[in-house]
Amino acid sequence: MKMQHILAVSAFALLAACSQPAADKTPAADAAATAPVELKAPAGVYVMDPTHASLQWSIGHNTISNYTARFNKFDAKITLDPANLANSTVEVSIDPTSVDANYPGDYTGTHAATGFKSWSEDIARNKNFLNAGAFPQITFKSTKVELTGPRTAKVTGDLTFLGVTKPVTLDATFNGEIEKHPFMQVPTLGFAAEGKFKRSDFGMAVGPVGDETTIRFDGEFLQQVAPAAAAPAA
Asked: pTM score, two decimals?
């Protein structure tokens, strides 16, 4: 009897599943599922909030791990066209001397021959690495924005690094928006982006660490509001 009861319940569950209406597979439903999110934010320029942003990079190390560091000084700007997101643009500038490797060891004790006081300074100023003395800025300027989903896009642009400019594509994600920042009282957007490039393409020598570099950005952008016009003189 127990086995008959189990079979009866199973048959009922199968019939119930079969009787459910099929998911809407119409073209209209597909279009709605892939349509870009409608932004409420007004068109204009949005500048990065440096207190809520991070920029990290990582490369393979000795083929067994990923070595990760970050930049502490960088800036980004989005010119937003909410009616046609593909017309939006992104600009980024990075100070290579701000690289932070978070090296806990006695660098001067183990690397005295380099002449640098820290691993971060070595990465920033060594001619074999970022060579910030000769190239004091790293920049990225978008040339194309291609929507890939309701909240995602491929952002292709010109990366200028070590004096060489080459195209790099980032996978960007729109994380959300708020009508008014709690302190700044302006529309605010949140984005993340990640991409890869080979540092040898920009002329950097490749040693015991990997060639492919992964970069990741997370941050918030505040609407840039023009200063109020001065009142006319009486």
From this structure: 0.81
